[in-house]
Amino acid sequence: MASTPRLEPLPAEEWDDDVRSALSPLLPTERANPRDAGNIVSTLVRNKGLTRAYLEFNAHLLLHSTVSPRVREVALLRAVHLRRSEYLWDHHVPIAQRAGLTVAEIETVRAGEVIDPVDALVVRVVDELESSSTLSDGTWSQLREQFDEQQVLDLVFTVGCYQLLAVAVSVFGIQPEEY
């Protein structure tokens, strides 16, 4: 990550109805402010159209995915770890805990030494997507035994979404919140 921000979060005095509208796919009105939105969203909203489209996509993955919250969090934690995004890792550890992962299980995701067979398959999927942008026939076969078509689509797009977000955090130099 850049040591200083390359793009700053949009200042509070520039938040208007258009900004709040861009955030509406994921954030309720009461959270559509710089403090509650956080530095990622407050930076992305410099491009309102892009932010709205991204948040509609992200809202599906976070709120309406056909994979379980646990599978989603294992996938995205592994993806952001491989992309070296401590910012996203730190944001999602509490979400992963709410999804049922223990602190020890979360650390196994980071290490790539997961014991649970479904979690291990998800980690393998993320690792293969990161290294080759595809899946081996063996991994594909196991994935299809475990997940239906919609779940496979949601899983692959979750990985890609968070790989992209990790890149954006790094390129823009988005800094942790100071509360």
Distance between the termini: 20 Å
Q: What is the C-alpha radius of gyration, as a whole number of Å? A: 17 Å
Number of strands: 0
**How many domains is the backbone divided into?**
2
Global outline: globular
The helix tally amounts to 9
In sequence order, what are the helices and strands, one letter per element?
A: HHHHHHHHH
Unreliable spans = none
Task: Indicate the CATH architecture of the largest domain.
Answer: Up-down Bundle
Strand content: under 5%
The helicity comes to 55-70%
Index terms:
179 residues, globular, mainly alpha, AhpD-like
Structure description:
The protein has 179 residues and is mainly α. It folds into 2 domains: 12-63, no CATH class; 67-172, AhpD-like (Up-down Bundle), CATH 1.20.1290. The chain is 68% helix and 0% strand. The chain contains 9 helices and no strands. Helix 1 runs parallel beside helix 3, helix 4 (69-82) runs parallel beside helix 9 (149-172) and helix 7 (117-132) crosses helix 9. The chain is globular and about 50 Å long. The two termini are 20 Å apart.
Short overview:
The chain is mostly helical and 179 residues long. The protein is 68% helix and 0% strand.
Layout of helices and strands:
Elements: H1 17-23, H2 34-44, H3 48-64, H4 69-82, H5 86-98, H6 103-111, H7 117-132, H8 137-146, H9 149-172
